[in-house]
Q: What sequence folds into this?
């Protein structure tokens, strides 16, 4: 579905909000160990298909295949993910001949991504300014982010997951918290489960921080404010947080859907108050060192560090592109899997690239797709650079993002601030320039500056960008001066810390423990 796109805001909103609203972290511990149904050594993953949501699940299931080949592994998602899952099994079999393939189970209904498409979301109308300017459109969209599915679709998926749970009878289920119908089914059956989401720690656990500091210290979601929030912005930060919470509590458009689901046997459909529960493991690719300072984190949280997919090395995925990468330090411009460019945005980047190539020895790889028709003339300024092969425009990159960064030839990753883009660059230890477009992307831009591992590329013009702002950003990261060296070194050191945390292997280890507990 070219051009029809979605975004993944819902993922962070739903998961984060459950904790905004739930006070369960302070509830007393239950004294008795719980027992759960399920076959020993059997694991089921349940995720959406969109890469932004599924990648942490695919990466972790891959690590389980390689490290714990005796476990029986199942993966249920919408049919589109089947190819990815079989490729993952095939790659794992090369690394450990003892592994058995993941058994894939296609679900009925429409994915989260498709459902958002169905209610009319396009990438172009997802783009919004930060702070007070953007809050109205964010709140207006909340209901759809929370539950994009139609009621009948939600129910059909819920029932399909119930059926699969009976059939597979897993001792542990790993689930994305945005996947409401799946989470409802797991909880209806009282299955043991682990939450695995791509979000960062603040998104999920800010409400647990002492002194209600979510209101005045941590930048409100989509605010774009720095950490700690400066005095003059505290009132606005307070207002944004309240308004955001209200938009989640007040969802008249969902009332009818929820009533239908209740009438059909789901006791508490999509109960955002209870997504977080202290009895169930919460796996995060967040890492305290890669986040604003967090004072309180729950004891059932495991911070695994960046969880990204391991695939064949770049040279195997696309030998020609890999050889090109090795010619010079490369600036990678890739604003996520779905973002395209209007003429103005493309033109501004062309000007920046022109200056950059004229003044340095780097080369540029730009994943570029047009939004609507416009003339190729916007590239006339850099036609020589394209001919010389110092600027490459690609509609699609044949090398997976992490494998690309792992070549060691990427000098800086320019991205839109998506969680996975952020964590891949953190994990590999390279600087980043963020051009945020909506909601949580503003947070990642703020983080990158706060951590000293990169630069916000569009401080004034976001969600647009200008060549002058972006030229400044490139200079700060690439000119070889003091700041550039400091950013490079800080990113490299954070990469070391992140790799020690274990990422997908740590998540796999935790899941394997739960898989082996048996029913006693
Ligand atoms: C961003 O650019 C588009 C045109 O490309 C323009 O319509 C829009 O008003 C700009 N937004 C801001 C916040 O400047
Ligand atoms: C080189 O960079 C400077 C500013 O950083 C700019 O003024 C100049 O135009 C650039 N050179 C070219 C050929 O673009
Ligand atoms: C589950 O399997 C593990 C080995 O994989 C074994 O140690 C454990 O005793 C089993 N539990 C039950 C209840 O059978």
A:
């Amino acid at each position: 579905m070219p051009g029809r796109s979605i975004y993944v805001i819902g993922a962070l909103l739903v998961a984060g909000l459950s904790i905004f609203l739930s006070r369960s972290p302070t509830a007393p511990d239950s004294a008795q160990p719980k027992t759960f149904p399920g076959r020993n050594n059997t694991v089921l993953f349940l995720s959406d298909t969109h890469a932004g949501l599924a990648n942490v699940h695919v990466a972790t299931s891959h690590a389980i295949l390689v490290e714990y080949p005796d476990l029986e592994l199942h993966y249920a998602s919408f049919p589109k993910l089947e190819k990815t899952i079989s490729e993952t099994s095939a790659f794992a079999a090369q690394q450990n001949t003892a592994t058995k393939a993941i058994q894939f189970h296609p679900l009925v209904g429409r994915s989260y991504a498709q459902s958002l498409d169905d209610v009319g979301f396009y990438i172009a109308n997802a783009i919004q300014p930060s702070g007070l300017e953007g809050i109205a459109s964010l709140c207006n969209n909340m209901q759809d982010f929370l539950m994009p599915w139609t009621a009948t679709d939600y129910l059909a998926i819920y029932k399909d997951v119930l059926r699969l749970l009976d059939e597979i009878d897993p001792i542990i289920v790993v689930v994305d918290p945005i996947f409401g119908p799946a989470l409802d089914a797991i909880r209806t059956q009282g299955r043991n489960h682990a939450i695995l989401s791509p979000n960062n720690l603040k998104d999920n656990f800010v409400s647990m921080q002492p002194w209600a500091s979510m209101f005045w210290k941590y930048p409100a979601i989509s605010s774009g404010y720095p950490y700690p929030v400066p005095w003059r912005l505290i009132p606005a930060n307070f207002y944004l947080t309240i308004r955001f919470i209200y938009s989640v509590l007040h969802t008249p458009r969902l009332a009818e859907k929820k009533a239908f689901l209740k009438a059909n046997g789901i006791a508490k459909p999509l109960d955002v108050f209870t997504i977080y529960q202290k009895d169930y493991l919460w796996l995060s690719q967040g890492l305290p060192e890669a986040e604003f300072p967090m004072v309180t984190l729950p004891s059932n949280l495991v911070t695994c560090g960046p969880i990204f997919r391991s695939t064949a090395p770049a040279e195997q995925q696309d030998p020609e592109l890999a050889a090109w990468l090795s010619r010079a330090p490369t600036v990678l411009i890739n604003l996520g899997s779905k973002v395209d460019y209007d003429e103005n945005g493309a033109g501004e980047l062309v000007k920046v690239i022109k200056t950059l190539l004229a003044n340095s020895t780097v080369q540029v790889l730009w994943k570029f797709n047009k939004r609507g028709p416009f003339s190729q003339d916007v590239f006339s300024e850099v036609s020589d650079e394209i001919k010389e092969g110092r600027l490459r425009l690609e509609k699609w990159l044949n090398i997976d993002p992490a494998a690309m960064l792992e070549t060691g030839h990427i000098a800086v990753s320019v991205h839109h601030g998506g969680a996975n883009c952020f964590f891949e660059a953190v994990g590999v230890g390279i600087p980043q320039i963020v051009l945020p477009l909506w909601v949580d992307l503003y947070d990642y831009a703020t983080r990158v500056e706060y951590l000293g591992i990169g630069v916000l590329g569009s401080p004034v013009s976001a969600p647009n960008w200008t060549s002058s702002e972006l030229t400044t950003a490139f200079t700060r990261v690439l000119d070889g001066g003091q700041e550039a060296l400091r950013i490079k070194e800080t990113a490299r050191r954070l990469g070391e810390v992140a790799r020690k945390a274990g990422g997908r292997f740590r998540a796999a280890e935790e899941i394997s423990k739960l898989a082996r507990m048996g029913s006693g």
About this structure: Residues 354-355, 358-359 surround 2-acetamido-2-deoxy-beta-D-glucopyranose (ligand 2) (CB under 6 Å).
